[in-house]
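Minutes, project check-in
Item: structure for the 76-residue chain
Input as provided by the requester:
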Amino acid sequence: MAKLMKYMTEPELGEHLTKQLRFIKSCQTPDTIGSMLVIFQDDGITQYGATVDPETAPQALRELADRIERRQTVKR
């Protein structure tokens, strides 16, 4: 059974996120500049990791939040 994220140390959490990001990166198409993994924990904490440049992330997240708020989402 996997250890709950809320009980992970910072190094364990880093390893956990890196493992998932490596898998996501291995699935990316050539036109992908990066990815962000956002995990919403049941204790209200949000964890994230990214392969995208940190300077790019805030703008991309704002654009995503705007689309979600406008209900411009696609069920997948």
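Outcome recorded: The first strand starts at residue 36 and ends at 40.
No further action items on this chain.
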